[in-house]
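Section 5.1 Outputs to date
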Amino acid sequence: MNAFRCLFRAAIICAIVLTQVAAAQPHKTQPYNVNWYLHPQRLVDMGGRRLNIICTGTGSPTVILEAGLIADSAAWRLVQPTISKSTRVCSYDRAGLGFSDPAAAPRDAAAVVRDLHALLRGAGIAPPYVLVGWSSGGLYTRLYQYRYPAEVVGLVEVDPDSEFDTLADDSKIVTAVMHKSGQWYNQQVHNWYRQFDNCAVTVTRGTCAFFLGGLAAYRERLGAAGCPTISPPACAIAEVRGEHLNRASLWKDEALELEASDKSAAEVRAAHRPYGDLPLIVLTDSEDGDVDDSGPISVAAQRATWLAKDEAEEHIAGLSSVGAHFVVAGSPHAIQLYRPSVVISAVDEVVDQARYRRQR
């Protein structure tokens, strides 16, 4: 099911590139430094390859931000500056993404967790941590907690992928996606877009597909969205992201992540242990935020998928005796971009709970 969910939500995840070009920001947040996302900030050696990390603020516990499929540190630009007012917070680019070097296979959750653990050690960022995972990043943060429980004092899961999904065998939905959207994944294509095919861009609705047609066509889409005048900082980031998306190494590593999605979910299931009273908040996007009556999947099927996802994420919250689950009204998948203040409030709450527990 997790492989299907990656496919089904690919257009929404990819909105991190263009969404903030076209969408207003209804909640007040601290301004971000656009230069963080135009150039590498701190490249940490991982033994022959490097990962880019951005750390701001001071205080403990340190908040670690883990993005979803194809997303890099820029996915957190609307929340990191505000969180850093109260504690230290770090975002990073996984292997192959942003300004980080690519990695060899595998790219399952276990490999991502090993990378993150080595990155934090190499960067001298000591625990305790509050881990924040968006989308597939939710699987990674939960596996990190299972592997290194002494290091993690809280979790915030932002519309996370789940190991508890109940639609794994819904072949009719998968068939509809594959048939109506063309050949989403082509393992024989090894050029710079070894990914999904026959997708259209719908910038004004906050969704977009993977950008076939090259960098020139991508820039035309940016112009159609109103760049650069509509939001010079967001447009500058989107321009750099377009250059990143033009790299074969990015698509290779992301294809490996996608291929490993079911394995990643299995790794998290196998590692399950009680969370006890670990501070945990799960945020779910709203049904109306993701429903698209122009897409390849029927509205009824989309709503069924959302209900299954909501149930699965309720199960995640139930792993902790103090876990809480909230549906964020009016927000699609990228809650941290559409409702950044909700994510900020959740992180602040978990940080406060972690500090209180430490003082007891």
